[in-house]
Amino acid sequence: KQEVTQIPAALSVPEGENLVLNCSFTDSAIYNLQWFRQDPGKGLTSLLLIQSSQREQTSGRLNASLDKSSGRSTLYIAASQPGDSATYLCAVRPYGQNFVFGPGTRLSVLP
Amino acid sequence: DTAVSQTPKYLVTQMGNDKSIKCEQNLGHDTMYWYKQDSKKFLKIMFSYNNKELIINETVPNRFSPKSPDKAHLNLHINSLELGDSAVYFCASSQDLGGSNYQETQYFGPGTRLLVL
């Protein structure tokens, strides 16, 4: 059964720092991996989707990588801003199954 | 315009009641989902519904039943509500559901906060 973990559970950084969030999954048989952000009391916003055939995706200051063989993905945020403060979740789509989400990393970017 | 909308935003009800949550998407997507986010903020998929095919998460009690009158709507009906059903329920949609190279980027609604007393 697919399991998804995220490290760290929480992270606090000063504004302007570059940071990396980690996502691990136990079964490499996936169609894709997605990164989302969730603001308090709100729904999820999709940030990036990486297909299984891809190694990375970029959107603005965000870069997500995927290493299927090792069961890992990273989300890199460059030049962090207070507006980046949110919970970041990764989710994988295993073969023949519905999406499985990680527990999230709660990010605080301090002004 | 809101891409994925849910009603109601808040729902407070007594144990044993039956309630429904409505979801609508105006993105023209083929696939819709229901998720449950518990008090620990853990998000778990309940159902996905693609072109009239329902894929059910096996851990969902049969008190929960999705109903899709058309491609733009996926409502969630809950019978005999229990205290443990208290959570935030999210609806989402994606263009496709087909695996590799299909567009499965998901768009989420704002959530329905259900409290069972």
Q: What structural keywords apply?
A:
heterodimer; A: 111 residues; mainly beta; six-stranded mixed beta sheet; five-stranded antiparallel beta sheet; globular; B: 117 residues; seven-stranded mixed beta sheet; four-stranded antiparallel beta sheet; 11 strands
Count of distinct strands of chain B = 11
Largest interface: A-B, 25 and 25 residues
User: What distance separates the N and C termini of chain B?
Assistant: 34 Å
Percent range for helical residues of chain B? under 10%
Strand content bin of chain B:
over 45%
String of helices and strands of chain B: EEEEEEEEEEE
Strand content of chain A: over 45%
Instruction: Tell me the structural class of chain B.
Output: mainly beta
Mean pLDDT over the residues of chain B? 89
Q: What would you note in describing this structure?
A:
The complex is a heterodimer of chains A (111) and B (117). By secondary structure, chain A is an all-beta fold. Chain A contains no helices and eleven strands. In chain A, strands 2, 4, 5, 9, 10 and 11 form a six-stranded mixed β-sheet that branches. In chain A, a hairpin with a 5-residue loop joins strand 9 (86-94) and strand 10. The model of chain A has no long low-confidence stretch (mean pLDDT 94). Chain B is mostly beta strands and 117 residues long. In chain B, strands 2, 4, 5, 6, 9, 10 and 11 form a seven-stranded mixed β-sheet that branches. In chain B, a hairpin with a 2-residue loop joins strand 7 (64-70) and strand 8 (73-78). The N and C termini of chain B lie far apart (34 Å). Classes of the chains: A mainly beta (111), B mainly beta (117). Chains A and B meet through strand 4, strand 5, strand 9 and strand 10 of A and strand 5 and strand 10 of B.
